[in-house]
Amino acid sequence: MTLPSGFIDQMRSLLGEETDNFLHAMELPPAVSIRLNRRKPGASFPEAKPVKWCRCGYYLPQRPVFTLDPLLHAGAYYVQDASSMIYHEVVCRLSQRLQQEADCSTPLPLSLLDLCAAPGGKTTAMIDALPDGSSIVANEYVAKRASILRENIAKWGYPDTVVTNLDSSRFVSNGDSFDIVAVDAPCSGEGMMRKEAEAIRQWSPELIENCAALQKEILSNAVETVKPGGYLIYSTCTFNRKENEENAQFIVSELGLEPVDMNFPEEWDIPSGIGTDLPVYRFMPHLTEGEGLFLSVFRKPGEWTQSNTRKKENAPSLKRTGAIKNYKSGKQSLKSERTSEDTPSIEQILSVDFDRSKFPEADVDLQRALSYLRKEAIILSPDIPKGLVIITYKGLPLGMAKNIGSRANNLYPKNWRILMQ
To answer: Full-prediction pTM beyond 0.90?
Structure first.
């Protein structure tokens, strides 16, 4: 891996004597880490080591072939860089602060907007940090990435989630407001150089300038959607100050939000920002076990009041409709394959709220599970009734098939099928 000379010069000006340690770390293989789904227990990794800042995150000693593990497709866990798992802890802490303000004896459902959500890792981390009944909107502006987001959100199985494919300004014009808004902004991607060659190829000072300008635009819209007393989370996966500390200062100076110190324990060894007094955080590969990440949290001035987390009729939830739809639109944003009106959608089947007693289930072995995920016809045990059947692996639903006796016709979504043999 050959890093751009301009990037190396930038890091020397940022890190000084630490630069050689940083460059050495960039040559090392990235850590492998996964985060478990608390609502879909079943995945087991005996040799895993805990991630210090995420109670459901673990490092693996080596990288397995995740694509060939049906539990990944069932939503039992998510493969995620450990640095990004800090989102789970941040939302846990923000939720606790809001619960204290509400002085509630029981956990209070909250509303959350993830404005730049694809592929869904941070969204699912935040979902697991929120109380049951909380309402989540996961938005992605790029349509192709929104399709990936929809699949990952559906597999995670939390019912009160809406996936959208909108410009950030749309939420402002709708007059929407949320208790927590997350902006994991499109960035120059310097923190991904160890994992993605494209991050090296695309790097340039001009890219940094363009990204910083876009981030300011998104942040200006995002702030308008935060309720008074609510919280904004801003992060990037890059190292330069222009997209990080300077934008954090922009949020305070120009957008009027108050910086929030998350008071992470010292033993987590999460470095603070560079050249700023703001309480911001940097995950650096030579200091923390994970990829590059910048994180900052802000509170919007004003008195916070409890959200009404009920969905409006024109913003239906998965729980009620079984289909992910455009926010405040009657049109289905990302199509769901159906065979008939009596056949549940894949989103319904994978939801933790789905009534599995409505259909018989066939728990299959590894080979038949992989055949099913490849959208191949499979043969079920003779004792499985004919008709619609939920296909499960180790007790977790994968999807549905129509058992005709001699074989079971596969109803798994074609665009979700795995191609690896």
So the answer is: yes
Q: Chain centroid to CA 201: how far? A: 25
Q: In what order do the strands lie in the sheet with 396-403?
A: 361-363, 387-393, 396-403, 408-410
Taking Cα atoms as reference points, which of 396, 419, 413, 400 lies closest to residue 65?
419
The token duo for 323 is 């289909």
The number of residues in the chain equals 421
SS3 387: strand
Domains of the chain, with CATH numbers? 84-299 (3.40.50.150), 355-416 (3.10.450.720)
The active-site residue out of 56, 187, 211, 237 is 237
Amino acid at 308: N
Q: Which two tokens stand for residue 322?
A: 């079984």
Q: Measure the CA–CA gap between 115 and 129, rounded to whole angstroms.
A: 17
Phi-psi map region of 157: left, alpha, beta (phi>0 left; psi -120 to 50 alpha): left
Assess whether 237 carries a catalytic annotation: yes
Instruction: Give tens-digit pLDDT for 105-133.
Output: 788 999 999 999 999 999 999 999 999 99
Assign 266 a pLDDT band (cuts: 50, 70, 90): very high
Residue with tokens 């808004």: 181
The pair phi, psi for residue 173, each rounded to 5°, is: -65, -25
Q: What are phi and psi of 71, to 5 degrees?
A: -65, -30
